[in-house]
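Homework-ish question, so no full write-ups if that breaks the rules, but can someone show me the predicted structure for this set?
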Amino acid sequence: MATYIAQRLLATIPVIALTSVIVFLLMRLLPGDPVLMIIYQAGADVSNEAVQQMRRQYGLDQPIYLQYLAWIGKLLSGDLGRSIISRQPAWDMLLPRILPTAQIGLTAWLLAMLTAVPLGIVSATGQRTWKDWLGTIGSLVGAAMPYFLTGGLLIYLVAMRWRLLPASGYVSPFVDPLHSVKTTILPALTLAIWLASTITRQTRASFIDVLQHTYIRTARAKGLGERGVILGHAFKNAMLPVVTILGIQLGALFSGAVITETIFAVPGVGRLMVDSILSRDYPIVQAVVLFITAAVVLANLLVDVTYGAIDPRIRKT
Amino acid sequence: MARTEPARPAERPGRRPRPRRLAAAVGRLARHRLALTGLILVVVEIAIALLAPWLAPSDPSAIDYRAMLAGPSHAHLLGTDDLGRDLLSRLMHGARVSLGVGVTSVLLAVGAGVPLGLVTGYLGGKVDEGLMRLLDSVMALPALVLALTIAAVLGLGLINGMIAIAIVLVPIFTRLVRGQVLSVKHNDYVQAAHALGLPTRVVLARHILPNVVNPVIVQASLGVGFAIIIESSLSFIGLGAQPPTPAWGSMVQTGFQYLEIAPWFVLAPATMIFLAVLGFNMLGDGLRDLLDPMARSRL
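A: Not a homework solution, just the prediction itself:
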């Protein structure tokens, strides 16, 4: 198991390295000279020589690969750059944003898992009955619902009509735990409905596939009840593809956070990305994109390791 | 599609002539409830988009200060927006933006991704290896985050949004096609074509491409749904279509400020996005059942 984990870790290094190159190049392609932008932000009137001087100071006169290496060096020492606008270090701006995004994302993930896996199993075992139709149509509709529609309906009905929960904002659990839960429910539900549809679909397809195997027939033939067959024999095998989907969908949760945090006015990572894109604060955009990428890559590593833990066949190859 | 299939004797006994084969395909499509519903949704949406100037009850940018945020009425069937513009007319014209961007960006992605997948899968080797690692890294970035970043790099506007979405979609098609190529390139008929001395270009076009067409059609239909979601998200954030262009995403964005007094202002365009995505997803799923039955097991 240890060698397997070490192998997976090694395999993620090139992915992280390549992604960092892509993020770096994307940011270099941005319109506008960073030096001129800083000067413009400061509102100063500077001579041509001073601009050249600043270029040298920031290392922008160096070849691009040296610039990249310098950037990586700073990155590894924990320096993510500074905001062009507030001059704050990017890390200081990013750090307080992580908790709201993680809290809402994890809640959504749990809600989705707890409803979607049983729903998928029910749908798969009751093929061609009303239960299956409910599962299939439900997941089709849920997967096509844009966050605007789910979020808009939830805010309008739950918050504005019935006045049950706040329509927007976020409170930290360390400040007011009860209020924190209240502000989490609607955005988490918005994300969860979409996530649950994809997981239901995957669980259903995977169970239908697994239930056709001969070891399931054997289990039934030896007189095991349907519950025993599903939970004892089918579950572990059928969940393997579902676990993979969960890793992939973590990235989708970040995409979702961009929209839901805007709709619900949550001060999270997604909202920081939108705000910094709109205010052209590119070092912050760069820091956020890097953070998201690292989170996604690490989550997939975690999924790979879980996969190895569930399925010993994978460790051996 | 038929034109790219390998040459075969024109009148082989037992094979139905082309028009009847087409009729049979349409018949199968019609019997497949999922695909049919999707197809109807998609056709209706495309018709609305194409006929918007004639169907829309009024000019989508005609401002009426006497009827701002008005509820549904005879004059305005779905009510009006914050500037008193007719929502129904704006929704119909918005279909042009969403479907136009959705379909065009998928066509761009297919145009770039399919040849790339064909060549890299067939040639293999170091270039293939490197390209796949590159695509893996691009795909490690969440789709909307990547699209937002590219759109920010390119600047505001519809065309730039379209290019950003196309770039996000390219790896999906490249990987799909490459996978198909790898699974058929060691088949005897491909080896035989190669041994006969046919140029790689011809082998790819005549013997490999036909295997790729069906999964690409399925993925393209699903891709349009995905592209519509990303386009509306870009417009919602303010990076896609710029005012006064009636895009569904930007209508939703303005609508959220008035959700309590005029819920239809958010819900109507959001429902349009939902129906468009649902249509293309259902059509894609249905086509997968019909064209690519093996795919169900590798879902």
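Now go work out the reasoning yourself. Hint: The CA atoms of residues 141 and 147 of chain B lie 9 Å apart.
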